[in-house]
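Give me the fold.
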Amino acid sequence: MTRAAHRSPLRIVEVAPRDGLQNEPTPVTTADKLALIEACVEAGVDRIEVASFAHPRLVPQMADAEAVIAGLSARARARAIGLVLNERGLERALASGIGEINVVVAASEGFALANQGTSREALLASALRILAEATASGLRTSLTVSVAFGCPFDGPTDPATVVELVERVRTASPTTEVALGDTIGAAAPGEVARLIEALSPLLPPEELRLHFHDTRHAGIANAWEAMRDGVRTFDASMGGIGGCPFAPRATGNVATEDLVWMATRSGYDTSVDLPAAIAIAPLLTRMLGHEVPAMLPRAGIFPPAPQT
């Protein structure tokens, strides 16, 4: 693959308030979630996944989705994304007034069954109905193909399966943004490059969004590979927090701070203010009761900012 020139800026979709918190055992108050979201706004992220309209019994940490959305500032609301898993979730999203939704389709049968209790084909059919209704209602839409590189139940994911899913989504809903989720941190850079190339006839890299987990410490390397191959939109989580309740041993997301530092030191532009992003780590530590895994809050920015 020909390496892309990196003149266009990277866009960060901040997922700490949803994907970051959903697997945390310590309950987080609505007020603390709003403080985290507003801190992310101040740090300059482009968009923010603020809540999930999942059933509260299945994901208790997201039980206050409507209260969170109701409490958003105008600046946060303009950036807000809500996760929708089924038609009932879409009803709740529409009633909340959120402007953008993300839906998820698993690339494997095993994960579809474990995550949502149904087949991959049924998930896709439901997702396409949700996208059509959301688009007709004026919402912006995105779809994440989860376990796009590997599944904890079915093993490595066949790239042809991902290509087929993406083709069907783009045919049915051409304006929907497509994201690839490395849900359990199974990808390595070579696999990332091959899947981006396999998708390129359907979807140019600059229209893709990628979501990496750092389960095996390959997340930053995978993001670097994707940047070099032309991808410009990345999910990331302040502090590197996160994980999937339905994916055994899945650990945190790629840390926003670490990703942005790597990108900017390599000549890429982002809208994120690194000192403001690093300042979020103590807030997360207080909220969660443990230190976050991101490295930049510990090591600091290099080179250090000049003292005034």
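The chain has 14 helices and ten strands.
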